[in-house]
Amino acid sequence: MIEKFRARCSMVDPVTNQPRFGPNMLAKVQDLLRRYDEVKLAMEEEAPLRLQEAQRAAELAREQEQERHLQGAREREAEQQREELQRIEALAAAAQEKREQREKERAEEELLRQLEEEEREKLNASIPHGKEGLERAIAMLKDSTGSEALYRQSLQKLLAVVSNICSSPENTAFRHIPKENAHFHADLGQYAGGHQCLLALGFKELQQGDEAQLRAVFVLEEPDLSEDLDAWSNWFDELKEMQSFVEYKLN
After folding, report:
1. Last residue of a domain, one of 17, 46, 67
2. Domain of 236?
């Protein structure tokens, strides 16, 4: 359109041979063309600057986009680190709780062990060793069995214990009686005085086995015959005397 105006400025009417535009119109068109040329020239001169600005803007946009990606990656990494730290802290807290629970259980087990040991010591000291203690224990046994038949059955079990030892004092099986042994418990151990009868014979209640499977056992220690014959003889004679005493109680 502009070029058409520019061309018509130099055209003449073929009939009148006069310029197509009158003086006023020609001045206006020429002024318009001048301003157009000025604007076009200015735009052409500014084009490289605008291109540079556009390039800088595009580069800045790319840098900003890269920074957003990097920031997002840093935030994700930081979140992962926080989650990992929380997981580690949770594991550490759980481990600490387990340690504290184990320590508490060990303390409770130790307290229970001490109480049981105190009870064993009290039981071991509850009856004199020898014939006097045996007589007291048998009296307790008679009261607790509640019938002559059960009383005699208990005495027969006691007699079997001491007779086995007297017949084979070297046999440790006869001198080790588990407290929870079913036959011993049924015939003698379940009654008041039953355990005291063993203590009067010289047995001691001890804990045997490993920590996972401790069990209470009544143990009668035999003096070392090779080191002290007199001590062994006194020990054996006392057992024979108490064997006779139990036999007397059964008759």
Report:
1. 67
2. 128-250
